[in-house]
Design a protein that fits this description.
2 helices; mainly alpha; about 100 residues
């Protein structure tokens, strides 16, 4: 695989981006869990759809967790791929 050399300042910026993607993935999982707990514990309901909301509150919480895990997986995957590519890419002095 022929990869172009990556300058040191670009490498540092991409490593920071990779780290931020991992931190963002953690934040997404945390916020989706908080949202699911809020959905399960809230008693706020729209007047016309109160019965429907009460019956489907658990499904909405599972969807919130599932959506958060999906988004976090994508973010962490992109961060991991970026980090692997940076590990195998040559630096300027390794040409």
């Amino acid at each position: 695989m022929n990869l172009r050399p990556v300058p040191a300042e670009t490498r540092a910026g991409l490593m920071t981006l990779s780290t931020l993607l991992f931190v963002g993935a953690f934040a997404v999982v945390l916020l989706s869990a908080i949202g699911a707990v809020f959905i399960l514990t809230t008693s706020i309901a729209i007047p016309l759809f109160q019965e429907l909301q009460e019956a489907n509150r658990g499904i909405a919480a599972v969807l919130a967790i599932g959506g958060g895990l999906t988004a976090a997986s994508v973010m962490a995957g992109i961060g991991g791929i970026l980090r692997i590519l940076l590990a195998v890419a040559p630096t300027d002095d390794q040409q």
